[in-house]
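Hey, sorry to bother you again with one of my protein questions. I've been staring at a protein lately and its backbone has me curious. I owe you a coffee for this, so here goes:
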Amino acid sequence: MEIQIPKIAESIREAYLAQWYKQSGDFVKKNMPVLSLETDKISLEIKAEEDGILNILVAQGETVPVGTVVATIAASTQAKDLPTPEKVSAGVSQEKISKDTPPSLQPLALSTPEKKAKALFGPKVQKLLEETKVDVSQIVPSGPGGRITRNDVLFFMEEKGIPFPSSLEKKAAPEPKKAAEEETLRKPMSPLRKKIAEKMLEGKNSTAMLTTFNEVDMTKVMQIRKEYKEEFQKKYNVSLGIMSFFIKASIEALKEYPQVNAFIEGNDLVYHNYYHIGVAIGSEKGLIVPVIRHAERLGFAEIEKAIKNYVQKIEEKRLELSDLEGGTFTVSNGGVYGSLLSTPILNMPQSGILGMHSIQDRPIAINGQVVIRPMMYIALSYDHRIIDGRESVQFLKRIKQCIENPERILVEI
C-alpha cells in the first residue's frame, strides 16, 4: 500500500513533511498516525490504512507536490510476534517469546538486582558489542521496551574508560564546543509559518492600519461566570469563558458599525449581512484563526463549544481548510499569554480585529471614590481607508458598554 500526499484543496499544490512518527522498518497498525503534514493553510495527520511494515521514501523536512508517494506499507504480521514494552516490563519469560523472533532481538536478562528488566538490541548494537567485548549485563538500557541503544554502549565505554575501536574513533570523538555566542540553529520555515508571515506583512503594507484603545471593567462578567459556572457546565458540558462575551459584544458593535464588518475589493466596499467571527488560537505551529460561522445565531454555550472543538481539531491535526475561510472579523486574546497591551495586525482581507489582554486589578475612580477593579485593556486595529477614527472609537466604546453591562447580551442559562 502506498502513502500519498492527499489532495486537500485546489489552491494547495504541495505539502511539507513536518514529522514522521515512525521509522522505516517499524510495524504500524491501521488508523495509527504515521506522518504530520503542513501546508500554507493547515496541518494534518496521515494515518496508516492497513497493518504492515513502514518503508519511508521521502525524508522528514522535505516539501513535495500533492500526489507524491512518500512511503509504502508492506502487509505483515511479523511485528506482532515481537516482545512489546508491556511484556518486557512485566518480566515475560524467554519461553513466551515467539521462536520466529530474530536472534538479535532476543531479550537478555541483566544480572544486577536493579537491572532485572529484560533488554533488547538490534543488529547494529550487536555488531558493536562484538567489536568492543563489553559485558552487556552492565549496560543500563534507555531505548523503548528496554532496548539497548548504540549510545547506551558508547556512554558506558566512555564512563568506564574502555577504548573505542578504530572504526569508531572518528565518529565517537566529541566535537569541540563553540562559544555560546557562536551557537546557531537553522531551520526551514514551514509552509504554515511562511503563510502567516506573508499575511502579517500584507496586513501592514497594504492597509492604512491604525489602532485605538480602551479599558473595560470586568467585574460583572467575572461575577456572572463565578455565579453560574457550575450550572452552565452541567447544562452545556462546556465552561463559560470570557471569549463568548467578547464575541457577543463584537457582534452587537458590528451591527451598529457595519463598515468594520466590510471588505475593500478594488474600488468597491463589500458589506456583509452576516457575522463570521475568526478566533485566533495559538498552536505549536503558529497562530491559527478558525472561523465561527453565523456567530450571531449562536448562544454562549454554542460559541464556547465551537471554540473548544476548534482547539481539539488543531491539537489532533484535524483542522480542515473550510474551517479557516470566510471570516469577516477577528477576535484575538493575547491575555492568555500574559499580554497587557498590544496592537493586533489585521487578518486580511478583514478591516478590523479586536485584541483582548490580561485582566489585572487596578485602582480606578468611580463616583469620586478610588476602588480596585479587575480591568482589561482592549484594542481595535482597523483599516483607516474604510473606517474613520470616530467609528473606530465608538465601536470600541460599544464593546465596553456590552461587557460592563452584560445584561445587554443575555446569557442563556
In short: The chain has nine helices and 20 strands.
